[in-house]
Write a structure and sequence with these properties.
By secondary structure, the protein is mostly helical. The protein is built from ten helices and two strands; from the N terminus they run H-H-H-H-E-H-H-H-E-H-H-H.
């Protein structure tokens, strides 16, 4: 007697579960292919392979969420693959471009790869598996694609005319270290926005995404580097502005949270900020003239 065939629904479900991992392994394929192309001296192909790997990395997570097939195995596999595609592969390109002339400059590539690995390990502990609005630190795919897309951008007429005279070995060395610092920092970076047609914000987001896709297809050698550079700088600038606009605390920082019932009868104390003067009670603001007289 023939063995009963498995239900078609079960077979389909297994195929759906495998689909995100297939995109992840495609990411790995292009990451390894990029390193092979770098070893052969084909830096143009090596750069675009990392960009393709980044596209697949973005799709595998979205497919896993859409099909509700995300697993811990898939998350771990994605991190291991990202360490190769956006850590080792871009570092190899930078080494071939600028870090192979001196004896110890290869350590810049090592610093970058170390930052990628630490960033991915921290992400698995802090943020993986949950709904998040921002990344804590620069995502490794963005950093890797930024480094990779520099080579195609450096082949453009604009670069040759206006930027080729700059000391790029020193600039890229500083950039590699800065990207490593941003990856292991807590600077918030926005996720890729979701498209939709049900609201004005969704329509604007959809139009923005479609415009980016059109630019990426039309002028990829300009779009990817410039867009990723703006993304990196905007996150850093936004974080700096938020830090400068941060106000002094309105409650005693030595007390616990306000929700703690034990603080209901805590004695209120005047907070002394030194040359800034005592903090006014919550809900009242000192008059500007009084403040000037007090500090005179």
């Amino acid at each position: 007697m023939k063995a009963p065939r498995p239900p078609r629904r079960e077979t389909l479900q297994r195929g759906v579960v495998i689909l995100p991992s297939a995109f992840t392994l495609g990411n790995l394929f292009f990451g390894v292919f990029s390193m092979v192309a770098t070893a052969r001296g084909d830096l143009g192909y090596a750069s675009w392979f990392i960009v393709i790997a980044g596209t697949l990395d973005m799709l595998d997570g979205r497919i896993a969420r859409f099909t509700r097939t995300g697993t811990k195995f898939g998350a771990e596999l994605d991190s291991l693959v990202d360490a190769i595609s956006f850590g080792v592969a871009p570092a190899a390109i930078m080494y071939q471009l600028y870090f192979s002339d001196t004896h110890w400059s290869w350590t810049l590539s090592y610093v970058y790869v170390t930052a990628v690995v630490v960033r991915l390990a921290r992400f698995n502990i802090e943020q993986s598996g949950g709904a998040i609005r921002y990344f804590h630190g620069l995502p490794s795919p963005a950093a890797g694609m930024l480094l990779a897309s520099f080579y195609p951008f450096s082949r453009t007429p604009f670069f040759a005319t206006y930027l080729s005279m700059l000391p790029w070995p020193q600039i890229t060395g500083i950039a590699v270290v800065l990207l490593g610092v941003l990856m292991v920092s807590h600077v918030p970076y926005a996720k890729v926005p979701r498209i939709g047609l049900g609201s004005t914000r969704g329509l604007l987001t959809t139009a923005f995404v479609l415009g980016c896709i059109f630019a990426a297809v039309s002028v990829p050698e300009y779009f990817f580097f410039v867009f990723l550079l703006v993304y990196v700088m905007w996150g850093l600038l936004r974080s700096a502005l938020m830090g400068l606009m941060d106000r002094l605390p309105g409650v005693d920082p030595l007390l616990d949270e306000e929700d703690d019932p034990a603080n209901a009868f805590a004695e209120a104390r005047v907070l002394d900020y030194g040359p800034l003067g005592p903090r006014a009670p919550s809900g009242s603001q000192p008059d500007d003239e009084d403040s000037l007289e007090e500090h005179a």
